[in-house]
Amino acid sequence: MQVSELKHAKLKTWVEEAVALMTPDAVEVCDGSKAEYDRMIQLNLDAGLATKLNEEKLPGCYLFRSDPSDVARVEARTYIAAKSKDDAGPTNNWVDPAELKKTMSDLYRGSMKGRTMYVIPFSMGPVGSGIAKIGVQITDSPYVVINMHIMARVGTKVLDVLGSDGFFVPCYHSVGKPLGPGEKDNGKWPCAPLDKKYISHFPESREIWSYGSGYGGNALLGKKCLALRIASVLARDEGWLAEHMLILKITNPQGESKFVTGAFPSACGKTNLAMLIPTLPGWKVETVGDDIAWMKFGKDGRLYAINPEAGFFGVAPGTNNESNRNAMETIKSNTIYTNVALTKDKNVWWEGIGYDAPGELIDWNGNPWVQDKGNKEQKPAAHPNSRFTGPAKQCPAIAKEWQDPAGVPISAFLFGGRRPKTIPLVNQAKSWIHGVFMGSIVGSEVTAAALDVKAGTIRRDPFAMLPFCGYHMGDYFKHWVNIGATHDESKLPKIFFVNWFRKDDAGKFIWPGYGENSRVLAWIFDRCDGKGKSVDTPIGILPTPDAIERPAGVSESDMAEILKVDIEGWKAEIADVRANHYPKFGGKLPQELNAELDAIEKRLNG
Ligand code: TSX
Ligand code: MN
């Protein structure tokens, strides 16, 4: 399709302006077809950027290796541009929007020379759903087009819904590597150096401008940029929730189902939880989404959630048949792998795949690699942030409701993190505001992989939204407070704090986690119906010692340990929140949260 055929006047003008600025050699409006997908794959094969994987073992799968400098989201180069610095808040990088547009326009000028500009109309959420939103991304990366085909609904059907004057979020993207006459990528992943990368958001005009990176969350603009940073602002303004949450369906042995969402910081196994296989007989868990939930109120006063995405962009290392069999099944075909290792027979391998590396591999840098298990210093074959992009519809556990345009009614919100001490296995909030407090103090133990803070400390990531909120985090807390104040609390989801990561004094995990977490989900399910044996404590509503049947290997005293109220530990937690966490949000911290902090402290001292 040609730009001249676009029926949406504003969209047509916007694309024409981009063409004039970025001066691509050609322009294509994407139709979302299989033929288009295959053509983009072929372009990448021809450019030496993709490797076709073993058609027998991994049909329709391809491997990409990125530039070593372009392997993850770049938070230091991620910007929220608003007229007032206070609207971005203390936890975002702020820039003046006019200044940023000037800087970036200079970078975009001529940035697509020698390349084709692809115009990708995409819907976050089922096409035509009342909860979905439309974006249009322009990009000079066929790798991005392929990934957007998997992660969002793209093409002509989206333009049909957009009509001649529908709302869309304009998303600029260029890898920032124009080609000279006759120049080809020739196997070299195109991107710009770090100090030229910009992942910019303009919440006031609902625009996204991304430059210099071709990787994941920096380049697939529907995901973190639109579905979280821009959508969080739309949700605030329109009275709904755009959250960094998985969505799952639980069915009990009686055949009754409930839907719950959960927010966890990175490296807590959110995708694993979304696809969990229960060990509890008769219980079933199915997947609606593994990363983002958009929730709006229905006429009945309940919150209904959609997964705005159509695929999983998951971390490969650690994914195996034990930790996540459903993910392993999902990514056996029609999947894009990025920065994993390649075997001799064109299969994939990564650290934690569940078996030793089969002979000599090609590592994520493209170099020969032989596993040396005696060498603790050996660099990994797959990058620790290497990814799979797989279609959600291929997941064996996908719930039949996963594309329901009306969304699924949510009964519970889970918050969690890696907390080796103090935080119990599960704790139900006594009220909405208590639950908002729980969300606001979410934190996770810093593992050795993160080099900036010393391992063993707790990094707070409220609502797991710190890198993904498009406005002031204090105002975000207030939005959550307001949701409770303006709705019938009895119809709102119940809120729970879970912790699969308690360790004993020897540093060994006490709770087996994974499928055994279904025991905790079952208690949560019952609590939503006012059932499930519980005890009211100063920190919240806990299961009685016998409410959750113990899994094999967990002794009675282990169970007591992870379900007890650690009064001294909690006093230290409260003191840390008061002294180090809440002050970060300054005057915008809702007084309701300070009051909740006081109330819990009083109960602990009581
Ligand atoms: O994803 C995890 N979940 C949720 C699963 C539904 N992980 C992996 C986190 C890194 C991505 C977990 N790790 C979980 C968990 O519940 N629990 C743990 C900690 C743990 C690790 C190993 C064992 C037990 C607990 N057991 C053995 O190694 C034998
Ligand atoms: Mn995420």
Protein topology:
Elements: H1 9-22, E1 26-29, H2 34-46, E2 50-52, E3 62-64, E4 78-81, H3 85-88, E5 93-95, H4 97-108, E6 116-124, E7 133-139, H5 142-151, E8 153-154, H6 156-162, E9 169-174, E10 198-202, E11 207-211, H7 216-219, H8 222-238, E12 241-243, E13 246-251, E14 257-263, H9 270-274, E15 284-289, E16 293-297, E17 303-306, E18 311-315, H10 325-330, E19 336-338, E20 341-342, E21 348-349, E22 361-362, E23 368-369, E24 387-391, E25 408-416, E26 426-428, H11 432-440, E27 443-445, E28 458-460, H12 473-485, E29 494-498, H13 518-528, E30 534-537, E31 540-543, H14 556-563, H15 567-581, H16 591-605
Parallel strand pairs: 1-6, 3-19, 4-5, 4-10, 7-9, 9-11, 14-25, 25-29
Antiparallel strand pairs: 2-3, 6-7, 6-8, 10-11, 12-16, 13-14, 13-15, 16-17, 17-25, 18-24, 19-24, 20-21, 22-23, 26-29, 27-28, 30-31
The structure holds ligand TSX and manganese (II) ion.
Account of the 3D structure:
The protein is α/β, with parallel strands linked by helices and 606 residues long. Helix content is 27%, strand content 22%. The chain is built from 16 helices and 31 strands. Strands 1, 4, 5, 6, 7, 8, 9, 10 and 11 form a 9-stranded mixed sheet that branches. Strands 12, 13, 14, 15, 16, 17, 25, 26 and 29 form a 9-stranded mixed sheet that branches. A 5-stranded mixed sheet has the order 2-3-19-24-18. The longest helix is centred in the middle third of the chain and has 17 residues, at 222-238. The mean pLDDT is 97. The site of ligand TSX has 13 residues, from helix 9.
Attribute tags:
binds manganese (II) ion, nine-stranded mixed sheet, 16 helices, 22% strand, binds ligand TSX, alpha/beta
